[in-house]
Design a protein that fits this description.
Length: 572
């Protein structure tokens, strides 16, 4: 039988922890004071009032007041109209899992703020044996799954719960200092504290993980040639060494979801923090104060734009080169497997791969990688452009020209479709290819042909696709020059749903179901009202001894979703 919503509000954290960890009860002679222990896993819920406030905000923004009404109705039904009496609605909840003596001994403690635990349990649905009642010590036994029981008692203003009676005796008196920071920032947060896992236990599992890596590598090597196999083995070894370092130097990992009160945007954070002074902490320090020379690719009016800047360490350079070696080997093998290419064509393609690999390998040795791209969805057809810093770009240009010349010997049509050195602008050499669009549905969007342009000099490469890709690149060059070297996060991705929804609604295929067409059209109409608040963004940032990434969904997106989900205005 399904439990009412209020029951979930009361014990969801206990069930989560109980299901997440197959922990056994703490041994009876375990008298280690809880205050000395440090949690491996901490789950924080912002509290009843915070939850209800967030639901109300999202309901109001989405134009769906029934979402809040359904929640309130569920609580009233579950408590038979009595409400959550005895619960302190203002304070957060928490669950903590501690490392035990072995992998089956992971004590769990949970904390729910209460004014009166007895009144709260009376308001909740009864258990299988009737209403919950305390024993002579004031302890309640609450089933939490097959062969799992939590022991709950009130101490001060907290209902403390543990997965054993002895664990309850040593439970933390006041968890607020350990959960308040996360609770102020997030509605729900999960933190995994790697450094609190005993080192012996971490080291015990490393050989198991190495074996898993090696087995996965062997499964993928069935079709590899010798060069691919060597590159994959080197990559696997580097990944494992990196994992070993992380197991020793990462302090904690945090995930959290919340609502920005200033903008009503929903956000999700991912954070990693390293132990101060560690090699990882020093490496993460290098992501501060980054600047791009491709600021012209950052455009609020674009459907999609991305910018990334990386200060490359020697270890990272080595990893990039290993990955490039594998892709080079895979590309070479794919050429060798092509029956439709002559020996001369294969030789030309392999020469191109080898020389391009050398340019990219040299670029991986640069102290800073700087790159970006954007997509514009105009009324005629999409325009896409990307730019990157490059080492020895003129060699790459020469390699491209040589490949085209070699291929043109057997296929004269290439010279009619590719125009080299069409012009030079701000030190950038331009080459343009006309690309036929054979797919009928794609041709409706792009036309029967599209153009691809490459702009290149010794330190920079641009690639663009569209009806006038040279003009697109020139604009990026000009806009970047106006901005100069611009400070940016290590990585930022912005997706504007207004132009994307409009474009999608205008270019649906004839086979698209009528219902999908209607929903897409309705979403496009609603997101067009967002006044620019139509973005989903992912932005990384530097934090003390670590880095973070935040996914943000702006208020206009929430409104548009509320309009098209079943039962909303779109369905009325």
């Amino acid at each position: 039988m399904k439990k009412p919503l209020v029951w979930s509000l009361s014990v969801v954290l206990l069930l989560f922890a109980g299901n997440l960890w197959t922990a056994q009860r703490v041994a009876a002679d375990d008298t280690k004071p809880a205050e000395e222990a440090k949690p491996v896993l901490t789950v924080v819920f912002g509290g009843y009032s915070s939850f209800m406030s967030n639901v109300k905000t999202v309901s109001d923004v989405a134009g769906r007041p029934e979402w809040l009404q359904m929640l309130q109705g569920g609580i009233a039904l579950g408590t038979q109209g009595r409400g959550v009496k005895g619960l302190d609605k203002s304070r957060p909840w928490g669950v903590m899992v501690f490392a035990g003596e072995n992998e089956t001994d992971w004590p769990i403690q949970a904390f729910v703020p209460v004014d009166d635990l007895k009144s709260l349990l009376k308001a909740l649905p009864a258990g299988q044996d009737g209403p919950y009642a305390p024993d002579s010590d004031g302890v309640y036994e609450i089933p939490a799954g097959p062969a799992k029981t939590f022991y709950v008692a009130q101490k001060g203003k907290w209902a403390r719960a543990a997965d054993s009676r002895d664990g309850l005796k040593t439970a933390i008196d006041d968890p607020l200092p350990m959960i308040s920071t996360l609770a102020k920032k997030y509605l729900l947060a999960v933190r995994v504290s790697i450094k609190n896992i005993p080192e012996a236990m971490r080291e015990k599992y490393l050989p198991i993980m190495r074996f898993a890596f090696e087995q996965a590598m062997r499964m993928q090597q069935n079709n590899d040639n010798e060069e691919q196999a060597a590159a994959r083995a080197a990559s696997t070894e580097q990944t494992f060494e990196q994992l070993k370092t992380m197991s020793k130097e990462v302090d904690d990992l945090t995930w959290g979801i919340g609502l920005d009160p200033a903008t009503n945007a929903v956000f999700v954070d991912f954070e990693v923090r390293a132990i101060p002074g560690s090699s990882i902490a020093k490496k993460l320090e290098q992501i501060k104060d980054l600047k791009t020379r491709f600021a012209g690719l950052i455009s609020p009016s674009s459907a999609i734009d991305f910018a990334g800047v990386v200060n490359v360490t020697p270890d990272e350079s080595k990893q990039y080169k290993t990955s490039l070696a594998y892709f080079k080997a895979a590309a070479t093998k794919s050429i060798e497997d092509r029956d439709d290419l002559s020996k001369d064509q294969q030789a030309a393609a392999k020469t191109f791969i080898n020389e391009t690999y050398e340019v990219l390998r040299k670029s991986a040795s640069m102290k800073k990688l700087d790159f970006g791209f954007k997509v514009d969805l105009g009324s005629k057809s999409p325009d896409m452009v990307a730019g990157a810093a490059l080492a020895d770009g003129l060699k790459l240009e020469s390699t491209i020209k040589k490949l085209l010349a070699d291929l043109g010997k057997e296929n004269p049509e290439i010279s009619s479709k590719v125009k080299l050195d069409v012009e030079k602008y701000e030190g950038i050499n331009f080459h343009v290819a006309t690309v036929p669009v054979k797919d009928e549905e794609a041709a409706k969007i792009f036309g029967k042909t599209d153009q691809l342009a490459v702009g290149i000099n010794d330190t920079t490469v641009y690639v663009a696709v569209g009806k006038d890709p040279v003009a697109t690149i020139k604009k990026v060059i000009d806009d970047s020059a106006k901005e100069g070297e611009k400070a940016v996060p290590p990585a930022q991705l912005s997706i504007a749903l207004d132009p994307m929804a409009k474009f999608a609604s205008e270019h649906m295929s004839e086979d698209t179901p009528a219902e999908t067409k209607e929903q897409t059209k309705k979403f496009a109409e609603e997101i067009a009202k967002s006044s620019g608040k139509d973005h989903v963004t992912i932005v990384s940032a530097s934090i003390p001894n670590g880095s973070s990434a935040r996914i943000t969904v702006e208020v206009g997106v929430i409104k548009a979703i509320g309009a098209v989900v079943p039962g909303g205005p779109a369905a009325q």
